[in-house]
Amino acid sequence: MRANIVDADEILTAEKVGRALEAQKRLIDNERRAQFESFGVPSECLWPASRVYHEHSELGPAWAATLTVEEVDKITRNLDYKRYPNAERFALPPTQTLEAKLEQAIRERHSTRDYAPRSVPLNVLAKLLELGDGVTKVQEIPRRAAPSAGALYPVESYVIALAVDGLEPGIYHYVPIIHELERLRPIADICAMEEFLPPDLLKARPPIVLVLTAVFSRVQTKYLERGYRFALLEAGHISQNLMLTATALGLGSLAVGGFWDEPFNEFLGLDSTTEAVLYALLAGYPDDASGG
Predict the structure, then answer these.
(1) What is the pTM of this model?
(2) Please, what CATH class does the domain formed by 69-290 belong to?
(3) Average pLDDT rounded to a whole number, residues 197-226
(4) What is the maximum span of the chain, computed from C-alpha positions, in angstroms?
(5) Rounded distance, CA 238 to CA 259, Å?
(6) Strand runs (DSSP E) across the chain, as ranges?
């Protein structure tokens, strides 16, 4: 057990508490980094976990798959993606083809931190999901808008709808292969996310928060340690699709990687050992009055 950060009889000041907390954080971090010395990582390395992981997920001539060709083929063709069978389902409306030019969308995309108090039409959300992670080609293994290692598609998309026409505020799961939403539970407003989102993002009050998670076994069963890299890459592909589509739709967006992990996973009802949040995205109409 670690010692108290201040003596019980000591007269506390904000400065003393601050120094004590900093000392405690340094102690915890030093203990964390010392655990990796057995892996050959010097204690002064500030990112030992990622260094070890990167080394242990490298590919080379000695790498060998643990599955047979038949087993790999079965995993790829298994379209039993995550579903919530008891959830209320909402079919998303058909959308029109966007006429926006790719170069224009890339040049105009920027991080938006202030959103207008304006709801997003359901067909706009539908287009955002369709071009972000939806099915673009119907075939035996439906192809989606973003590349995925082995066509395994381990990344799941959730919609936290705060102001979307036709949807009650709540948490929804997107089902790409049938272009539907599954309603998981209601929420009151963005304050429900104060445990894991930074305060400035809560104040932005976006009408939509999109969340990308990874179901680890779907990709790691085939690719082992390398699969985690692939899941992160896929989340990045989808996020860029979402941001460029948002720009083309006249929406602003902001990619969010800085959040408290475990409260976010609990908020979505996830077991973080099997599925966890990787990335999030705010979206909505920019508040031009604020200069955002």
Answers:
(1) 0.89
(2) alpha beta
(3) 95
(4) 72
(5) 19
(6) 88-91, 135-137, 143-144, 155-161, 170-175, 180-186, 208-215, 252-256, 275-284
